[in-house]
Amino acid sequence: MLDKLIEWDERLFLHLNAYGIDWLDPIMFAITGTAIWIPMYLFIIYLTFKAYGKASIWILVGIGLAILLADQGTSGLMKPYFGRLRPCHDTRWEGQILNYRYCGGLYGFASSHASNAFAVATYFCLVFYKKIRGFGWLFLWAAIFSYTRIYLGVHYPGDVLIGALVGILSALIGFYLAIYLKNKINPKLYPN
């Protein structure tokens, strides 16, 4: 069964990666980077402080925990444990796939980009659920951000899907752990 899932994952990757467009390659490469998203992150931090004041410190602790769990869960644990080559490192696909500019580390299961993006999307949807509506767009951002990894030939769809699930779980853990720590340390100093 696992072999069949891997085969389907590889077929889907080859299908999705086959639609590279020359003018789109540098755009997808820019989207997959970090620097382009700094203004969005700063805006979210601004909204956090505007909505929560002093309690924002606990929100930042929580997102830090979520990203730490998401990133280390994929990069530190899963990639070395499973040892699944990235498509761009797999010699079976030489000359068959689009790989624009770089390949990254040897292993790709699961995607840290997807994990971190979905952790951010989930976490801030939880944070702003009662204060500010309309943060569901973060899931669209996370999906596009994650798809660039397939487009650029550095991850299989399964890598991205499992990375997204790890990110969502990490966000839930980070969110509820931050609430627990806030309430344990001094609930009156930082009200909800």
Automatic annotation (TrEMBL):
UniProt domain Phosphatidic acid phosphatase type 2/haloperoxidase: residue ranges: 60-175
Protein name: Phospholipid phosphatase
Membrane-spanning residues: 27-49, 56-74, 106-128, 135-154, 160-181
Cross-referenced Gene3D superfamilies: Phosphatidic acid phosphatase type 2/haloperoxidase (1.20.144.10)
Taxonomic path: Bacteria, Pseudomonadati, Bacteroidota, Cytophagia, Cytophagales
Cytoplasm in keyword set: no
Cross-referenced SUPFAM superfamilies: Acid phosphatase/Vanadium-dependent haloperoxidase (SSF48317)
Matches recorded under InterPro entries: PAP2/HPO (IPR000326), PAP2/HPO_sf (IPR036938)
Entry keyword set: Membrane, Transmembrane, Transmembrane helix
